[in-house]
Amino acid sequence: MSHKHILLRHSKVYMVWTAMKQRCYNSKNKNFSQYGGRGIGVCERWKHDFFTFINDMGKRPDGYCLERIDNDKWYSPNNCRWATRYEQARNRRPNVFIEVDGLRMISKDWSDFLGMNYYTFHKKVRHRPSNEQTTIVKNLIERKN
After folding, report:
1. Closest by CA position to 22, among listed 12, 32, 11
2. Of 54, 126, 128, 144, whose CB is crowded by the most CB atoms within 10 A?
3. How far apart are CA 32 and CA 85, in angstroms?
4. How far apart are CA 21 and CA 80, in angstroms?
C-alpha cells in the first residue's frame, strides 16, 4: 500500500467511499435493505478503485454528502454528485413530486411557493392520484394570483 493511500484512508472522502460500498454489499450494515437489499450497487469503475472514485467525484466539499441523482440507479459517475443535506432531503424516495406546467417540486416546495403551511398543503394532496394533485395545485396557484 502506498504512503498516499495510507494517508487517504483516513480522509472524509475515503470514508464516504467505504460507507457507500458497505450500504450496498454488507448485509449486516443497518442501511443495507435500502441499498444492496433492493438491488443498488456500485459501478465496476468505483467498486474496487478508490482513486478512480476520487478522480471522478473530486474532493468532497465541506458540508456535502454523496448523493445518487436517481435513487433507483447504482452509484456511478453519471448518477452521483456532492449535495447539501437540504438538497438530499429533496431527493428522497418517499418524497412525492407534483408537476404543474413543467414545474416539478415536492410538497414542501409547493407549500413554500404558495405561501401555505406545509401540513395544510400536504393534507390536501396526500393519497390522491397525480392528476388530482396537479389540479389541486393549479387551483391553489389561481387563487393565489
Report:
1. 32
2. 54
3. 20
4. 14
For 70-119, what is each residue's pLDDT tens digit? 989 999 999 999 999 878 777 776 677 888 998 888 888 888 999 999 88
C-beta of residue 82 within 8 angstroms of C-beta of residue 57: yes
Cell numbers representing residue 108 in the block: 414542501
- Give CA–CA dist 6/91, Å, rounded: 34
3-state secondary structure of 73: coil
Q: How far apart are CA 21 and CA 8, in angstroms?
A: 17
Of 45, 72, 53, nearest in space to 15 by CA: 53
| Nearest by Cα to 20 from 89, 107, 80, 86 | 80
Query: What residue type is assigned to position 30 of the chain?
Result: K
Burial 59-69 (b: 16+ CB within 10 A, else e): ebeeebebbbe
Output the pTM of the full model. Answer: 0.67
Residue 103 phi/psi, 5-degree rounding, is: -95, 115
